[in-house]
Amino acid sequence: MATPQERADGPQSVPALLHRNATKYANAPAYREKEYGIWQSWTWAQTRDEVEALALGMMDMGIAEGDFVAIIGRNRPYLYWAMMAAEMCGAIPVPLYQDANAEEMAFTMSHCGARFAIVGDQEQVDKIFEVQEQLPQFEQMIYLDPRGLRKYDHAILKQYSNVQEIGRRTRDQHIKALEARQAKLDYDSTCVMLYTSGTTGKPKGVVLSNRNVIETAKSSSQFDDLRQSDEILAYLPMAWVGDFIFSVGQALWTGFCTNCPESADTMHLDLREIGPTYYFAPPRVFETQLTSVMIRMEDASRMKKWLFDTFMAHARKVGPAILDGKPVSQWDRFKYKLGEAFVYGPLKNTLGFSRVRVGYTAGEAIGPEIFDFYRSLGINLKQLYGQTEATVFITAQPDGEVRSDTVGVTCPGVELKIAENGEVFYRSPGVFVEYYKNAESTADTKDAEGWVATGDAGFIEESSGHLRIIDRAKDVGKMADGALFAPKYVENKLKFFPNILEAVVFGNGRDNCTAFINIDLTAVGNWAERNNIGYASYQELAQHPQVLAQIEAHVEEANASVAEDEMLSGCQVHRFVVLHKELDADDGELTRTRKVRRRIIEEKYADIIAALYDGSASVSTETEVTYEDGRKGSIKATLAVCDAKVVPASAKKMAAE
C-alpha cells in the first residue's frame, strides 16, 4: 500500500493519519452508514483502500495539486472519503452546504475556482448545471447516487463507483505519482477550505492547514479523554467546521467510529440505535428535542405527567451536583435513583443519550434553562466557544466546572485577551492561515502576532478563569438611557419556551426593547389540536388570539427573568409581533447554520419595526418569500402588535431589598 513519508514527530497530514489508522486499528470500525434500514460498516483498512481507489481515479481524471474540489451532499462515508482522497492528491476539499441554493453554490465555487465537484445526488447535480455558465474553471463532476441521472449528458459526469474502479485498474500507472504527492504534504500544507456562514456579508473562504486540524484534534481529544472506542453520529452539515473537526480531525486522531444516519427524517431513530458516547449539537437541536419532550408530556396521562413533573423538579435541584460529584444527601441521591428508573433513564433512551459520556453545544449561546434541563438528567453536556477561524476550539468547560453562564476555560495551547472595548481576542495553533483571496479581511481579523479578533464581547472571570460571552460585539449596544443592550441574552430566554422557535430583539439606541417572535408550528399545532382549534395555515395559527395570549405570557415570564440581572434588566421586551412566516435561510433571514442575520431582518421588516415603536395596534405588510423550487412569491398579512408587562425599576429594587 502507498504510505506517506513518516515524520519523527508523527503524522503531519490527514492522509498520513489515515494510513496510520489503517495499520494501527486495521480491523476496527471507522465509518458506518445506515442505508435501506441496514447499518453497513467499513474498517480503517477498508476505508484506506476506498479512499486510495478514489484518489487514483481522480488522478486519472487529471486532478492537479492545488486544485479545489467542491464536496456537496448529506453526511455519508463516501463524501468524507472524497475529502481525504482530494487531500491525498494534493488538492483542497471545499465542502458546501447541501441546502444552499444554486446561486450560493455559484458564488463559492467561482470564488475558489473549483475544477471538480463530488456530489451526493441528482439535486446537487441540477444546481451546478443551473449555474454552470458562471463557473468558467469548472470541468468535471462525480456523483454518488445514480438515481435520476441515466439520461443526463455524461460528458462531464462520472459515477463515484466507476471512478474508484478506474482507480483500481490504473493503480500501477498512478501510484508512484500519488505517493510522491502525499510525501510532499506537511503541517503547513492546506488541509481544507471552509466558508464562513456570512452573517454580515458574503461568505469568506477560511484556509486551514494540517497543523490547524491535527493540533486542534490532538489537544481537544486529550482535553476530554476521547478514545478509540468512542462513537459519534455525523449529522451536522459537512460544510460546517465543527463537523469537519469531529468527523474527520478527531476521528482520525483517536481512531473512533463515525456513524452517518440514513436521512434527516430517520436521524433521531438512528441516534437511538447508535447510542453515541461523544455527541455535539447546536442549541437549536437541543431546543427542538426539549420541545418534543414537552409536547409528549402534554399528551401523557395524569399519572405520567405527575411523575415527570415531580422527578424533574428534583433533578433540577440535585442532578447537576450529582453529575459533577458534589456533596448531595443520601435521601436526595435515593430519590434521584428512583427518578432515573422512572423518568430520566427512559427519557435519555428516547432521546438517544443513554451512553453519552461527553456532550457539547456551541454555535451560539444556549438558554440556561435548556442547558440545565439536560444536565439535570445526568447528561454530561458542556459548552464550548469556537470559530471556523480557530478550527473550532477556543474555550471549553472541563468536567466538574460546568456552568450555564460561561463557555469555559482556554483550551490547551490557546491564549486569550480582552480589548478595551470588551472584544475577545485569541491566539492558538488552530488559527487559520488566511481568508482566500481576501488579504484585507485577513489583516483586519488576524494581526502580525497571530491574535484573532472574534467579533464577540465578553470578559474573563478573575476568580475562575472562565470566559463569559455577552453577545456579538456588533450587536451589543446601548439603550437611549445608556443601559446595556444585549439581544441574544433575551432571545435565549424566550426560546426556552416550547411554543417559541425563534426570537429577534430590537432596542439599540431606543427607549425600550421590542421583539419579533416565530411560533414553533409543531408545539403550537399540537396545542391547537388538543384544544379543537382549527387553522388553515401557519399565518392563521400565529395570529390566533389564544396563541398571542400564550406568547404574551411567555414574554412577560422572560421579562421577569431578565429583570433579575441588574446589568441587562433594561432589555425587557415592551412590545412584540408574532411574525406571519418562519424566518428562513432561503429568504436570506438566517445563515445556513441558522444564525439570525439582524441587519437584513431590520431592512426587510422595517415597516413592522416602525409599528412596534409608533404605538400602532396592528400593521399590514407584504413579504417576499422563496419556495422550495426556487420560485419567488409574496405573503400579505395584518399582524397584531402586542404589549407585554415589564418589571419596573422600583419593583426590582424592592425585590432585591
Report helical residue fraction.
40-55%
Please identify, by name, the CATH architecture of the largest domain.
3-Layer(aba) Sandwich
* Contiguous helical run count: 22
Give me the Rg, rounded.
26 Å
Spans of 5+ residues with little confidence (pLDDT < 50)?
652-657
Q: What is the CATH third-level topology name of the largest domain?
A: Rossmann fold
**Morphology call:** globular
- Portion in strands: 15-25%
Structural class: alpha/beta
Looking at this structure, what is the CATH superfamily of the largest domain?
Answer: ANL, N-terminal domain
Model description:
With 657 residues, the chain is α/β, with parallel strands linked by helices. The strands form 7 sheets. The chain has a 5-stranded parallel β-sheet, with helices on both faces. It has a 5-stranded mixed β-sheet with strand order 12-13-14-15-16. The chain has a 5-stranded mixed β-sheet with strand order 24-25-26-28-27, with helices on both faces. It has 3 domains: 233 residues, ANL, N-terminal domain (Rossmann fold); 69 residues, Roll (Luciferase, domain 3); 180 residues, GMP Synthetase, Chain A, domain 3 (2-Layer Sandwich), CATH 3.30.300.
List the helices and strands and how they pair.
Elements: H1 14-24, E1 29-35, E2 38-43, H2 44-61, E3 68-72, H3 77-88, E4 92-96, H4 102-112, E5 116-119, H5 122-130, E6 140-143, E7 157-159, H6 160-169, H7 171-184, E8 190-195, E9 205-209, H8 210-223, E10 231-233, H9 241-254, E11 257-260, H10 267-274, E12 278-280, H11 283-298, H12 302-323, H13 330-351, E13 358-361, H14 368-376, E14 381-387, E15 392-396, E16 409-410, E17 415-418, E18 423-427, E19 434-435, H15 439-445, E20 452-460, E21 467-472, E22 477-478, E23 484-485, H16 487-495, E24 500-506, E25 513-519, H17 521-530, H18 538-542, H19 545-563, E26 573-578, H20 598-604, H21 606-613, E27 618-626, E28 632-643, H22 649-656
Parallel strand pairs: 1-11, 3-4, 3-5, 5-6, 6-7, 10-11, 12-13, 13-14, 25-26
Antiparallel strand pairs: 1-2, 8-9, 9-19, 14-15, 15-16, 17-18, 18-20, 20-21, 22-23, 24-25, 26-28, 27-28
Helix pairs in contact: 1-2, 1-9, 2-3, 2-6, 2-7, 8-9, 11-17, 12-13, 12-14, 16-19
